Amino acid sequence: NKWLCSEVYTKKNMGYGRYVFTTKGDLENYDKKIVAGLFTWDDNDYQTQANSELDVEFARWGIAGITNVMAYSVQPTRGGTYTERESVPTTPLQYDAQNLTTHIIDWNSTRVKFETHVGDDTTAATLTHSFIFDNTNPPRTANESGVISDPIVIPAPGSTTKAHINFWLFDANGNGKGDAPSNGQNAELVIHKFQYIPY
User: Fold this and answer.
1) Which of 71, 3, 62, 66 minimizes the C-alpha distance to 37?
2) Integer Cα distance of 3 and 90 in angstroms
3) Which of 5, 73, 85, 108 is the most exposed place for a label (fewest CB within 10 A)?
4) Cα–Cα distance between 135 and 183 in angstroms, integer?
């Protein structure tokens, strides 16, 4: 009588470079309570780097009417308050014959570039969505339970930054537990391939 969610992350610490996630299946039609995340994270550098978090997420955040579910973000965003740090593509994903799409976080000290491609491919010919965030943007602070981070433009990787994939349930009522899917059904996220190419 309880729902379980999944998260995996690398054992290896990672830094600047290209994080390439190839997924299989429809990422845009999950239940409104389900969130799929492809991201970077560091447990140990919240104060200085807002956890080194860069995200590609697929979610409706509990609202059935949301149709544009993929978002790129450079944390901190303060839940979307800092709109320059997020991009939500307005056109659907495109899949190849094997139902694959590829999502890239390309991270260096002066810019973060997000890309989405058709299939298991990263060439210019398959590019369908992109977002570039550079160091000309203003610094912003994160706020977690009243703890304010240092101002950050592009977060740097910390000494324990890893690549993460999570598949979880949105907590609409804020009780610390994910809400059950509104359709009462199981769901799956299939990762076809992950690659990290350091700089």
Assistant:
1) 71
2) 31
3) 5
4) 42
* Nearest alpha carbon to residue 36 among 50, 66, 57: 57
In this structure, which amino acid lies at residue 33?
K
Q: What is the pLDDT of residues 82-101, one digit of tens each?
A: 999 999 999 999 999 999 99
Whole-number Å distance between alpha carbons of 92 and 96: 13
pLDDT at 143 over 90: yes
Closest CA to 20 of 6, 8, 45, 38: 38
Residue 74, classed as helix, strand or coil, is strand
Phi-psi region of 51 (alpha: psi -120 to 50; beta: other; left: phi over 0): left
Q: What is the DSSP letter of 140?
A: B
Rounded CA gap, 18 and 167, in Å? 21
Inter-residue contact 41 to 54 (CB < 8 Å): no
Q: Report the length, in residues, of the chain.
A: 199
Cis amide linkage into residue 76, ω under 30° from 0? yes
* Buried b / exposed e along 135-167 (16+ C-beta atoms within 10 A): eeeeebebeeeeeebeebbbbbbbeebbbbbbb
B/e letters for 1-39, b = 16+ CB within 10 Å, e = fewer, are eeeeeeeeeeeeebbebbbbbbbbbebeebbbbbbbbbb
Classified as helix, coil or strand, 57 is strand
Judged against a pLDDT cut of 90, whether residue 1 lies above it is answered with no
